[in-house]
Amino acid sequence: MWFRNLMIYRLAEAAITPAELEEYLAKQVLQGCLGLEPQSRGWVPPGREEVDLVYSYGQQILIALGTEKKLLPASVVNQLAKIRAQEMELHQGYAPGRKQMKEIKEAAYRELLSRAFAIRQRGHVWIDPVDGWFIVEGTSTAKADVLVEAFIKSTGVGLERIRTNMTPTAAMTAWLSGDEPPSIFSIDSDSVFRSREDKKVLVSYIRQSPDSQEINRHIRIGKEVIKLAMTWRDKISFVLDENLQLKRLTLLDLDREPAETAEEQFDSDFFLMTGELRQLLPELVDALGGADGE
Question: 53-67: per-residue pLDDT in tens?
């Protein structure tokens, strides 16, 4: 269990225990799509064992929101609707009008939806009740919003996006233009500059670092850094973006003994991930001037 992409939130209230969380989530377990439901959501076991809704190791917690969605391409609906329209034309002697075609398509959709194949996905959340972190895995803001809303609805525990006194964009631009980042961070080769005036104007550097003249030219004509590859304490590499998201997290050379079972490996990976990120996150926030309001 290793999160590749992080969206960072904070628990706005007192810590919650695994037992309390299990009780809350059990009231909204994922159920399969019934009848004409195109999609359903609910909590699912997050670990390898499909039993408990809350996985905890030490003081750290892992949960997962599951989504079941029926696969029904528009082309399939249109194909059936075409067949039904042809049948109606033969029956009534003339082609269906616009209103009839709309009704035919709706009927075809309902007919196919009741027997459509469903897929399940799940989105993970790591909760640190000690330091108040609530970390959503992924890069989609829309999916994160759904997960956050479901968590608040299920538990009543408030959440807030973390904001720093210095924006990531301002900090990354300063670091590339001459200001040294804290010594625990090093700047890697990937970066993206964007125009302040025209958000569509981007300049990307992949596996190469712009020289000082290029950086100064970008900044002089009104560009700022919105993505920057970094490494923390020679342990974890990642890309920081303008929204304080961490992407492409990679654990660097750490010597680890392989576990004997899959369950032990899961425990070991989760323990390692949470242990490292509990150090990285506050140090990154400090590098950005601290959390806003603290």
Answer: 999 998 999 999 999
What are the tokens at 32?
């399969």
Kindly give the residue spans of alpha helices, DSSP state H, lying in the chain: 18-25, 74-92, 98-113, 141-155, 168-176, 212-220, 262-287
Q: Quick one: tokens of 103?
A: 């009704």
H or E element that contains 187 = strand 185-195
C-alpha gyration radius of the chain: 25
Asked if residue 204 is part of any domain, the answer here is yes
List the structure tokens of 115. 């027997």
From CA 127, how far away is CA 175, in angstroms rounded? 31
Structural domain harbouring 281: 168-287
Torsion 242-245-249-254 (CA) sign? positive
How many Cα atoms occupy the beta-carbon half-sphere of 189 within 13 Å? 4
User: Is residue 37 one of the residues assigned to a domain?
Assistant: no
Residues 173 and 258 in one domain: yes
Angle between helices 141-155 and 18-25 (to 10 degrees): 100
Q: How far apart are CA 71 and CA 93, in angstroms?
A: 34
Give CA–CA dist 10/8, Å, rounded: 7
Least confident of 13-27, 28-42, 160-174, 178-192: 28-42
pLDDT single digits (tens) 173-228: 999 998 999 999 999 999 999 999 999 999 999 999 899 999 999 999 999 999 99
